[in-house]
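Q: How do we represent a protein-ligand complex in a form that can be generated token by token?
A: Start from the inputs.
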Amino acid sequence: MHFVLLDRDGVINKNRPGSVCSVDDFELLAGAADAIAALNRKGYRGLVITNQACVGRGDLSSTELDAIHRLMLEQVAEAGGEIEAIYVCPHRDEDECDCRKPKPGLIMQAHADYGFDLAATWMIGDSPRDAEAALAAGCRAALVRSGTRLRTTPRTGVTVFDNLSAFVRQLEDRRQA
Ligand SMILES: [Mg+2]
Ligand SMILES: [Zn+2]
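Then emit the structure tokens for the protein with zinc ion bound:
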């Protein structure tokens, strides 16, 4: 099976100053739900890999985070797409966990659950942290300009796209593979 690993904020939904701390703050980026549906039609399953330090800071309860994710899954489903699982790091930098991007821990958790080929799998994000995590895990790294965090030219080995739709358009069709 083929997978695409997706950062959440800035890739699927709009970034907020601070972070998305309630259902009311959650707004899909234009075309993102359709892009996930298109990704599924090309034979890929989508997994979300997201840092949510707002949980560790106490700005967002896990109950509210679950509500935000239910809304995201519903809105993606309305477009005919499916996100198979959501991996969350709730920690802050100072917690020094193994899962907060740019560390590869969340990707490795997903890999332990689904066993995909790391070297053949894209991780797409909007922050250099996402690309660092992807490369540290041995994945292919892509960044989109639809977030707010891509201010510099990324390092070698990172491919840049305007948004998730543009990324999905260039994905190889894997249905027959
Ligand atoms: Mg992001
Ligand atoms: Zn963590």
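The first strand starts at residue 2 and ends at 6. The pocket of magnesium ion (ligand 1) is lined by residues 7, 9-11, 125-127, 147 (CB under 6 Å).
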